[in-house]
Amino acid sequence: MVPAINAGSGPERPNLHGSRNTVPTMSSRPSERNEHRKPQVPKSLAGGNAQDQYIKGLEREFKFKHLGVLGVLGWILFLHIVGIFFFTKGFLLTRMVLENKSSCEVLPFGDASSVGKKVDGCWHQKSFDKAIVIIIDALRYDFAVPFAPTAETDAAQLFHDNLPVLYETAVNSPENAFLLPFIADPPTTTLQRLKGLTTGTLPTFIDAGSNFAGTAIDEDNLVAQLRASGKNLVQLGDDTWHALFPDYFDPELTRPFDSFNVWDLHTVDNGVTGNLFPLLHPENSTKWDVIFGHYLGVDHAGHRYGPNHQAMAAKLKEMDRIIRDLIARLDDKTLLVVMGDHGMDSKGDHGGESHDEVEAALWMYSKKGIFGRTSPETAMPPMLARDRFVPQIDLVPTLSLLLGMPIPFNNLGSPIEEAFIGPNGNDWKNLMTVNRLTAAQIKRYQHEYAATRGADDDLESESMELWQAAECSWQKLSKIGRSSQANLRSVSESYKEYQRHTLQVCRGLWAKFDVPSMLQGVAVLFAGIVLLVFYARSANMGRADLTSPLLTLVGAGSAVGVAVGASLSLAGMVEMGVAAASTLMAAVGSIIGASWSIFVTSGILSVPLPRSLWGWLAVIFTVTQSIGFASNSYTIWEDEILLFFLSTFGVLAGVSSMRQKSTADRVLGVYHSILFVILGRLASFSRLCREEQMPFCRSTYYASATSSTSAPWQIAIPFLVALILPTVVRSFYAGSKSYEGAATLWIGMGFRLGLFITSVFWVLEGADDGEWLPLRKETLKSVRVFLAQLVLALAFAAGTTAFIYSKPCISINVSQGNAEPEGKGKSSAPAQPAGRTTVTILGFGNVHGTRYFLLVVNFCLGIILMQKPMGQGAIGLLLWQILSLLEILDTNALVLGNSAIGPVVLGLLGSFYYFKTGHQATLSSIQWETAFIPLSSVQYPWSPIFVILNSFGAQILTAIAVPLTVLWKRPLQLNDQSSSTSKSGNPSIKLLTDVVQAACTYILYFATINLATTMWAGHLRRHLMLFRIFSPRFMMGATVLGVVDVVLIVFSVAGVRWSTLSVGDIFGW
Amino acid sequence: MASPPPSPLTSPLATSAPDLPKSAPPVPILPSQLARIYSFLHPAALLSVYAARFPALVADPVSEMAQQLPILAVAHVVYAMICLPPAGSDVSLSAPTSPAATASGSATATGTATPTGNVILRPGKVGRRRTRDSAAGGASAWGAKVAPALLSLTLTTLLATPTLAILLILFGAPFTTHHVQTLLCAAHMAILSSTGLIYVHGVDGPVWKEVWGCKRPGDAVWGGALGTAVGAWLGAVPIPLDWDRPWQAYPITLLTGAYLGFVGGTMLGRSVLFGKRVRFDEGEESRNKVD
């Protein structure tokens, strides 16, 4: 670079270019034109105390400002955590799942008084031995009652009056049958409804039980109770039952059918009917006790055609026939229940909470004639569901008591009076008894829930008064002995009042979103984004210089906030705990402090609008994607949309490259743009489809769509990666003659070795699955775990050490005398006058970038280890695309342009490869088993970290690569000592500023996505796809944001410190 | 510091023209009465036919696209031959029109000109005389048009269609299925975008370099080409939506976007955006000047 001893300023410049001429792209850099300063002497060759002092000063300044910058990023992380926490607190309502089971022997009263009386049945005299429960999916109440025009103009629609049997029987023989509107608790999806119909409790998003990942019900429920009492259960139809109740049903007689093909109206129904009627034959009557038949035809007709269609009429007529046949073949001991699990809206869809969706029908029938009506007004089934109805959970205690079962522990429903009042409508004693039983069980549950959750008076106080009042009047009654109907009725009703009140309280607790808390969270997140936009994107923002006033004000603001929040909470002015209130106020205080610092004191504010096509492109990518998350379709197809955006970027990069003046820039730029697009498309072949993408998607991530193991041919992918990837990285290093020093050892040897060991690991894994090797499973496993730990040690222990202590990837040649041939022979120095010392530095053009990139290599190795073979190929392509992107940025002069496009495209790449490593925005796509790659048992905190490395590997890798968007081929700017009096001359501070800007821009992308998914999830909290699509995407967005923040603080921006120090050690400051 | 948000897409030709002395000027529609009328007739006819055949397209995209392809090709070549100057003729044509073009470009930039009227008329006076001169041998004039027309058809088929098909696949079109759809869609897009360009510019290296760099000044031909691309890009937007409409099937929306984009681009290119260039960077011109 520079002759050291007699360093002249002018004539040596060509020499500098001589070593750089392998990077011709440099010549078009605007900054370089201004670089007519006296270049700094390599430190090792320099002398002089004053200079040392000065350099130390610069180094200290860099270190200090670097710490400050980390502080700012930490504050941004704090804002994100607070915002997400408050939103989540109001949004993800959780209900604890109590695993207590009711048992036949223990009555719910808790006192021994009522035990002893022997009844035929568990807690109450049973009425039936057997039952047939028919669920007609989406049987809306108005399908079952005669058409009653509410206005003159009303005309009967096609779905009306096709299923008269329910109404006829209920009217003609009220002692045999009753028909009632049956109101579902939203969400009105079959799975959630079946949970409610069997457990008697309310749905929430997270039932925080032991079984988080699976769908099986682990609460006490009717099916489990029946099974426990030795009944033989048969299930026919919808296979959702088997996800909820695995192994509960008689394997011989049960016939599950796939429930997702909504275009098929008949397969399931014919299957149910065909298998149901043989069971009713007298000779089969001993083979079963309870049949659950689940018809899907009505639901599918609704989804496919809507209710007002000939197909629906035909389907309802078919149901009518089936029910009539069932009635004809029913014996005395058997109860027949027909119900809808939910209704359907005018288009025939469901999931939400509109009237049409929640109003199902319930009809019970028996030949015994034990049903009754409590009053003449209720003799007829109501014409409109709003007139008089029962909640769906009421089925649970009713059916339990009719069949002589204990009421499931978690039940909140009440017994349906028509079933217990007796044919004459006056058996108030019976009704009171069942009401008392149910109320006692609810009280027991309430007590247990409060005890498990910790003191929560909400559930207790008022409803306890109701309970006590009811108990008092009951005791009075039992003292009197015989009592009048009126007294019995009032006691029965006071128990029922208690039940309903508790239900209301629980509904309030579990089914109501805490909107103020959600808004607080969104507000904090939004403010964080606004501040970040100004901090990261405002022009001329002296980010490094702003650090200390910003942090001071943020600190002061939070301190004031904590004090205010705590005192408000203690004074009882806000309904929040001290911790929550002080946290929220701390966030608010810090936002105010930061706003003051950024908007008022800095005084260098400019509107952060993009000033180039690239800037606009970055905004368009981020904003359109964010808007798209309001639609379930764009959320489902996010992977394809990301590919579309990435290809758009690649094509525009190619176009932009064509505009470059220098031929080398043009050729390299176009080449890398084409490469970028092709690599992205190549990676897109690795797919794991989510259910909603079917049938337009084919999974390739695993051997087949129904397996979660790799195909044998996929085991070749890790070997290919080990073979190709280090060579690829090497070629990018070699492009700037930087494949020197630590790079040769680390990339050529360490990286390749690690990748090779990873490949061997997956061969052993495959051998284990396929039993190819004559080794014991334990041996294989311990070898595998050892290999994986070796790779991790290589990547993170050895890798980090290497990263911290290694020298920059350059080779310095000092040649004395006249034009001696260069040691490396790669670039010959121009002829020098004899007697001068020539210093040739290879790899000078990319000294910052190649030095920092070692960290990316470390993480790439660690992340690749945690992926399945297909994902390893994807991560390999990701690394290649990152390098290609960096070259595109360089050839299009975007490295020093502070353009937002680099970090944003990295963000897009991170999101894109999340999907390409076998993930989807669903909980079920988490690859839990990867926690066992380097460990044989669950160990905290390592296992969760490994799952995070697997899940968010792509985002982590791109986060690590973010500083490279301003470091790659960044010209080495050295401090001009002649102007050392002015403080602004420290180029490492400029570098730091640029790095922070890139990091903040990257955060901004994910923060915007997070805010969008958060707001949409909150806004669409009653959307029918909330649980399947919006909530999981919100959870993913929030987790990714947290992970990305932490990685940027702890590794990326922190890593810049070591790489810059290392460069500074050689070249000075 | 607060600078008003500049539109990054356009800048008046006047500022950048001096930097690029060698670049071919924007191409106006031929000045003849027939060309003027037909240049409006053609896009209108294109859209009406497309709208009329849309139900058939939705019902059976492949056969409908295949049937329409030759008609579109012929219609487009006829449009080019009637309305556009053929390649090689630009020495005689573009030289006199370029000052007018520059004038109209700056006129639009100052916002005084109405979209089409006088922009077309002024070069027309100059040009009409010229065409009358060269129209002395009518057969040779048409002969001069046939060769570029054939060339443009050949190159559109052989180069533009495969290139666009590959681009469609790179943007996420199915790789293993729907090959016929992709190819036909690419062929339609190629005819819309490339026929005019090749007819007007032939295989002029500098012009095509400008095309690849999106640096052409706005005119009917370049506007149509860029509009086709942008339209098809936007056409992908409705595909993922779960409306279950038959027209959401690939590639119907892309094709619709391409047609709309072509017409919109052509109209904008010859009027308000005439002579303006796509700009990537605010500092681009200044940097170019320094270099």
UniProtKB/TrEMBL annotation, chain A:
Instruction: Specify where the region named Disordered lies, as residue ranges.
Output: 1-48
| Any one GO MF annotation of this record | mannose-ethanolamine phosphotransferase activity
Asked whether the keyword Membrane is assigned, the reply is yes
Task: Name the UniProt key words of this record, in alphabetical order.
Answer: Endoplasmic reticulum, Glycoprotein, GPI-anchor biosynthesis, Membrane, Transferase, Transmembrane, Transmembrane helix
Biological process, per Gene Ontology? GPI anchor biosynthetic process
Q: In which pathway does it act?
A: Glycolipid biosynthesis; glycosylphosphatidylinositol-anchor biosynthesis
Give the transmembrane region(s): 67-87, 517-538, 550-572, 584-607, 613-634, 641-658, 670-689, 710-733, 745-764, 785-805, 849-866, 895-915, 945-968, 988-1013, 1034-1054
Chief localization class?
endoplasmic reticulum
What is the top-level taxon of the source organism? Eukaryota
Where are stretches of biased composition, namely Polar residues?
18-29
Query: What is any one of the record's Gene Ontology cellular component terms?
Result: endoplasmic reticulum membrane
The answer, when asked if Transmembrane helix is one of the entry's keywords, is yes
Indicate how the chain sits in the lipid bilayer. Answer: Multi-pass membrane protein
Q: Where in the cell is it found?
A: Endoplasmic reticulum membrane
Q: Which Gene3D superfamilies match?
A: Alkaline Phosphatase, subunit A
Indicate the family of this protein. Answer: Belongs to the PIGG/PIGN/PIGO family. PIGO subfamily.
Query: What is the protein name given in its UniProt record?
Result: Uncharacterized protein
Automatic annotation (TrEMBL), chain B:
Cite the residue spans of the region called Disordered.
1-21, 94-134
Could you tell me the Gene Ontology terms of the biological process aspect for this record?
Answer: GPI anchor biosynthetic process
Please, which domain of life does this record's source organism belong to?
Eukaryota
Which pathway does the record list? Glycolipid biosynthesis; glycosylphosphatidylinositol-anchor biosynthesis
Q: Which UniProt keywords apply?
A: Endoplasmic reticulum, GPI-anchor biosynthesis, Membrane, Transmembrane, Transmembrane helix
Q: Name its cellular compartments.
A: Endoplasmic reticulum membrane
- The membrane spanning regions, by residue number, are 150-173, 179-200, 220-241, 247-269
Low complexity bias locations: 94-117
**Entry's Gene Ontology cellular component terms:** endoplasmic reticulum membrane
The family database entries (InterPro entries) matched by this protein are listed as: GPI_biosynthesis_protein_Pig-F
UniProt main location, coarse: endoplasmic reticulum
The protein's name is GPI-anchor biosynthesis protein
What organism is listed for this UniProt entry?
Aspergillus ibericus CBS 121593
